[in-house]
């Protein structure tokens, strides 16, 4: 068989993701605020795009002449209508902002900022400032311009004025850079002395300098040392408090009687000491650099319909009893400036310039259509979620049903990956609060009636039972199993323990100690 070069023509098919399709998929996974950022970049790159107003074009405007509306790029009927500025005749998929009920009270205007997480010995708000404003006005743009300084930057700005010793200042700055986000020094002083090649006394002096900085407690190596620094600042560090801080392990184990005997105080003084201890911050570094909690802007609004028989709003999806719409406050609206395109086309005499202008028009048209399809898809998926989880919206988390991506995908006739993108980074606001769309997709457990029950409903029932338990009769996991079975949840003891730990509730022994500590006031 002779070997030789030759040319063959073969026909084949392949599935290729065009840049436009990749862009549409990317837009689907973004939230409305992220889409706004994306559109801002597109406006800078494409002169034919402009941000539209809340309403449509004025009805009284004269229709442009035939040559002002005619373009050379569009080939399909849909593109022809979009290119000529008559997209409304094609029933576009975007939401007409004129149909939005802007006066409707959604109830999300007064959402409070998230509370600072309490940890360690703190209960409620311990040594932390609670943020949040009662007004409905958001911060001005100049209030968002600069981000909060980090803990290291905050400490570096103070230490320069505390000493004129250059070596001591150098070691102090070096120690500041070794602090973790909570303000603790995780290295031992001998390790620091060896790393810097300095006497241990100089390192100790530098650490003492760092420990004088604000917030009080930074530079500590242990929890006891951190609380001792704050006790000294409050002028409460006496021998009895020192003895209490030296035996924090007994406090953690709940051995209060033994700890009180070691301190040599009566019950009243011991309660005062514990109350003082609760006022200290075990992680002072977290107060610096974290900044205020950002309020979540919901992408989807769900409200009870004004009437069961009312027709669905053009801006929302049709679900009996519910009005579902995209949030107009974060809903981006992009328009293609046709008159500017025609003006530029008339001035383009070069073929290359005309080709570039045509590409910009094609990109602008595709972006508008991609945004239209995105909004339509989000509304369709959100409507199905509300339909599947109607019990939650009417009665609360105890009526949350097990639901998977496949369930919604089959109902709306889309792929599971599309549903996953739609529910990513999207938040839904209803009368019960603001929830991420992923929240409604939960696994199920068996019920006594044979039907599946949502895991979130089980967690809510466990939390309710534990919150209402008698401090003198703490519920064990076996007792929780019996009580849950009476409520219709058929669960094993191991499953109850898993859900209890998932919501941050301790065992019966741990809860008994916590309630004993809370009772010492």
UniProtKB/TrEMBL annotation:
It comes from the Bacteria. InterPro entries: RNA_pol_sigma_54, RNA_pol_sigma_54_core-bd, RNA_pol_sigma_54_DNA-bd, RpoN_core-bd_sf. The keyword Iron does not apply. Residues 143-340 form the RNA polymerase sigma factor 54 core-binding domain. Residues 82-101, 124-143 are annotated as: Disordered. Residues 356-513 form the RNA polymerase sigma factor 54 DNA-binding domain. The keyword Nucleotidyltransferase applies. Keywords: DNA-binding, DNA-directed RNA polymerase, Nucleotidyltransferase, Sigma factor, Transcription, Transcription regulation, Transferase. PANTHER family: RNA POLYMERASE SIGMA-54 FACTOR (PTHR32248). Belongs to the sigma-54 factor family. Sigma factors are initiation factors that promote the attachment of RNA polymerase to specific initiation sites and are then released. This is RNA polymerase sigma-54 factor. It comes from Novosphingobium capsulatum.
């Amino acid at each position: 068989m002779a070997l030789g070069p030759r040319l063959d023509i073969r026909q084949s098919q392949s599935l290729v993701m065009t840049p436009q399709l990749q862009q549409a998929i990317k837009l689907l996974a973004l939230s409305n605020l992220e889409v706004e950022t994306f559109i801002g970049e597109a406006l800078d790159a494409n002169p034919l795009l402009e941000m539209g107003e809340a309403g449509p074009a004025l009805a009284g405007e004269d229709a442009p002449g035939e040559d002002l509306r005619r373009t050379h790029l569009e080939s399909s009927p849909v593109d022809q209508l979009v290119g000529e500025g008559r997209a409304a005749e094609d029933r576009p998929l975007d939401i007409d902002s004129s149909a939005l009920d802007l006066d409707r009270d959604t109830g999300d205007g007064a959402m409070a900022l998230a509370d600072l997480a309490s940890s360690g010995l703190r209960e409620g708000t311990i040594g932390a400032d609670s943020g949040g404003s009662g007004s409905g006005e958001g911060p001005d743009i100049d209030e968002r311009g600069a981000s909060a300084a980090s803990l290291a930057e905050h400490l570096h700005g103070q230490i320069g004025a505390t000493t004129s010793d250059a070596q001591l200042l150098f070691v102090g700055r070096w120690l500041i850079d070794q602090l973790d986000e909570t303000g603790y020094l995780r290295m031992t002083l001998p390790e620091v002395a060896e790393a810097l090649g300095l006497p241990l006394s100089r390192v100790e002096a530098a650490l003492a300098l760092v420990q004088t900085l604000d917030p009080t407690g930074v530079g500590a190596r242990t929890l006891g040392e951190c609380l001792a620094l704050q006790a000294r600042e409050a002028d409460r560090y006496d021998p009895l408090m020192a003895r209490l801080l030296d035996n924090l392990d007994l406090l953690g184990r709940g051995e209060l009687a033994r700890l009180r005997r070691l301190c040599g105080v009566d019950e009243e003084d011991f309660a005062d000491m514990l109350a003082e201890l609760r006022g200290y911050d075990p992680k002072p570094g977290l107060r610096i650099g974290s900044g205020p909690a950002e309020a979540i802007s919901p992408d989807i609004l769900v409200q009870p319909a004004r009437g069961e028989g009312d027709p669905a709003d053009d801006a929302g999806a049709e679900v009996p009893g519910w009005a579902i719409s995209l949030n107009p406050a974060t809903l981006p609206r992009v328009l293609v400036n046709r008159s500017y395109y025609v003006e530029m086309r008339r001035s383009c005499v070069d073929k290359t310039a005309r080709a570039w202008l045509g590409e910009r028009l094609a990109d602008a048209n595709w972006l508008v259509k991609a945004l239209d399809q995105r909004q339509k898809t989000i509304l369709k998926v959100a409507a199905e979620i509300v339909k599947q989880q109607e019990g939650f919206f009417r009665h609360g988390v105890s009526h949350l049903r097990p639901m998977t991506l496949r369930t919604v995908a089959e109902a709306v006739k889309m792929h599971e990956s599309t549903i996953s993108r739609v529910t990513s980074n999207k938040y839904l606001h209803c009368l019960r609060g603001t929830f991420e769309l992923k929240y409604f997709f939960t696994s199920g457990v068996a019920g006594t009636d044979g039907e599946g029950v949502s895991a979130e409903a089980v967690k809510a029932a466990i939390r309710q039972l534990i919150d209402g338990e008698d401090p003198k009769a703490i519920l064990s996991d076996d007792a929780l199993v019996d009580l849950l079975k009476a409520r219709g949840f058929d669960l094993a003891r191991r499953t109850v323990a898993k859900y209890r730990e998932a919501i941050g509730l301790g065992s019966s022994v741990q809860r008994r100690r916590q309630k004993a500590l809370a009772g010492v006031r």
